[in-house]
Write a structure and sequence with these properties.
Radius of gyration: 29 Å
Number of helices: 17
Strand content: 5-15%
Low-confidence stretches: 13-28
Distance between the termini: 90 Å
Number of strands: 10
């Protein structure tokens, strides 16, 4: 009896000791549904390589012609690619087939626009495509310089969409602009000018562009061209070119988001289009180098004092110290800040460089820069309300009063000037 009890206790103890080991073996069993090698350090058996946390903004690019040619490039076409380490595993063939279909689809989206452009006879060189979620870039610029251009566009789109709560991924707003913006970026300025001249003489040019005159059109650093934006590699550095993409994207989004379909032309005057563009250039790329002063008010003195973005805060602080602004007919410039009721009525044909600097700071104010989180949210809601009203035909001064609850525009102006002192001090 004692022997049987002892034997029973030994068996029970052995079973207790072995239980964890058995459990571990069951947990580590290979999933028979995995297409790849479960011990693969790259895909862990899934058969797919995806972006990791270190990928950064390269994730914005969905297709790169360079990578499609099998060359070394950090872009994962479609956001993932088959694991080459697991290539010989039987379950991998469907993975490779799936990705090839995705590549062909994106290649077709990228090539469709090029085929349309080639039919026009435009004297463009051979162009290679890149795709982001909302943009298409066609360029002959060396591959090493192209990624940041389309990334700048995508960052601008995402920032604008988030700021004005237009809708995230999968929303109607997001799907509306899927691959919706096209850019052509050329290496040579001479080739750019050749295409600008061709476009001016072609049947494809619109009335507003034609009315600029050939000389003025060809003097632009970028133009609307066959439903895209045509530009060239500048001598001012890649950041300048990237800001150009931010400028183009946000200026278009401003109208697409807020201008009513009933409006025959955009009611947004220069301070809004240029101010919003400058704001996002600053937020997305840390400075402002794309803006428009057409003619009329961009005098020599105004240009000397206000042309450089780096001088804007200092010049605004000085102008804000003048209690009563006055326009100096002799120098063609303002002493003090341009009064708000005059600034909001200025157009590209008469806004000075000072007006651009003020527009940039005014948009920062209306977007809630320097406010608490709750106040910033309230500011943006009011600004969005203002833009919606103006976009539907309400006069700007009336829209300001409606959105901000002031009886006089001067009340808003005084709040802006008080805020400006703090803004310029930082």
């Amino acid at each position: 009896m004692k022997i049987d009890l002892k034997r029973f206790l030994l068996i029970a103890l052995a079973a207790f000791i072995l239980m964890p080991a058995i459990g571990m073996a069951e947990d580590d069993e290979v999933d028979p549904n995995l297409p790849g090698d479960p011990d693969c350090p790259a895909c862990h058996g899934t058969g797919k390589i995806e972006y990791d946390k270190k990928a950064g903004k390269i994730k914005f690019i969905e297709y790169c012609h360079y990578k499609d040619k099998g060359k070394r490039c950090p872009v994962l076409i479609g956001g993932w690619e088959p694991c080459l380490r697991c290539e010989d595993f039987p379950g991998m063939q469907p993975i490779f087939d799936e990705h090839e279909k995705l590549v062909q689809k994106l290649r077709g989206i990228a090539g469709g626009y090029l085929q349309q452009v080639q039919k026009t006879g435009a004297p463009l060189p051979n162009l290679a495509p890149l795709l982001s979620r909302h943009g298409r870039l066609y360029t002959d610029v060396p591959h090493s310089s192209t990624h940041n251009l389309i990334i700048a566009h995508e960052e601008a789109f995402n920032n604008f969409s988030e700021d004005f709560e237009m809708g995230g991924e999968g929303s109607a707003w997001d799907e509306r602009f899927r691959y919706g913006f096209s850019y052509i970026h050329l290496t040579s300025k001479d080739v750019y000018l050749k295409n600008a001249e061709w476009f001016y003489d072609s049947k494809y040019i619109g009335h507003s562009a034609k009315s600029m005159g050939k000389k003025r059109l060809m003097g632009c650093a970028a133009i609307g061209f066959l439903n895209s934006r045509l530009s060239y590699l500048s001598q001012q550095g890649l950041e300048h070119d990237e800001r150009g993409y931010v400028d183009s994207c946000t200026t278009q989004l401003l109208s697409l988001a807020f201008v009513s379909k009933d409006m025959k032309r955009s009611p947004f005057t220069a301070w809004l289009t240029e101010g919003v563009s400058a704001y996002y250039q600053h937020v997305v790329r840390g400075g402002v180098s794309w803006y428009t002063v057409a003619y009329g008010m961009g005098t020599r003195q105004d240009k000397e004092k206000w042309q450089r973005f780096e001088d804007w805060k200092g010049s605004l602080a000085d102008a804000n110290k003048v209690p009563r602004s006055k326009f100096d007919e002799r120098t063609g410039s303002w002493k003090g800040l341009i009064p708000l009721d005059q600034l909001i009525g200025m157009r590209i044909t008469n806004i000075p460089h000072q007006g651009l600097a003020q527009a940039w700071s005014l948009v920062h104010f209306l977007m809630g820069t320097g406010f608490s989180s709750r106040q910033r949210e309230e500011q943006r809601e009011k600004f969005k309300d203002f833009l919606t009203q103006v976009g539907s035909g309400v006069e700007q001064e009336e829209a300001f009063k409606n959105a901000y609850g002031y009886n006089k525009l001067s009340t808003l102006e005084n709040r802006y000037r008080s805020w400006l002192r703090r803004f310029c001090a930082h």
